[in-house]
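Contributing new records

If you add data, match the layout below exactly. Sequence lines come first and carry their own label; structure lines follow with theirs. Keep one chain per record. Anything else will be rejected by the validation script.
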Amino acid sequence: MQNRKHAFTIVELLVVITVIAALAGLTIFSFGSWRLRTAQTEMKNELNTAAATLKSYRNFNNIYPATLAGIPYTPGTGVTLTYTLRSGGASYCLNAGSVAVPSAPHWYVDSNNGMAPTTTSCS
């Protein structure tokens, strides 16, 4: 009887390495997509909260505040909000950008076009 050593062949090792590389590629792709969706959700939530607070302020004062510091609202650390007062306090534009994913598209709320966040910049 011949004594044979048991080992993996080069083909088996290449197949395993290929499968691991494919799984790693899928994971990295999914993670990037997940980060973008999370950043967009975070920006929309910040815009909705700020817009609701601004609407409440206007209901009591008949004008929007000059700055966001004039309302009881503190934006989260993951989003940069830019507030632009227009028409002498009759309307505003909010612009949200992501700190974690700077390449993510900005989201906007234009008080002249409703309260829903959109990727269309304010007019």
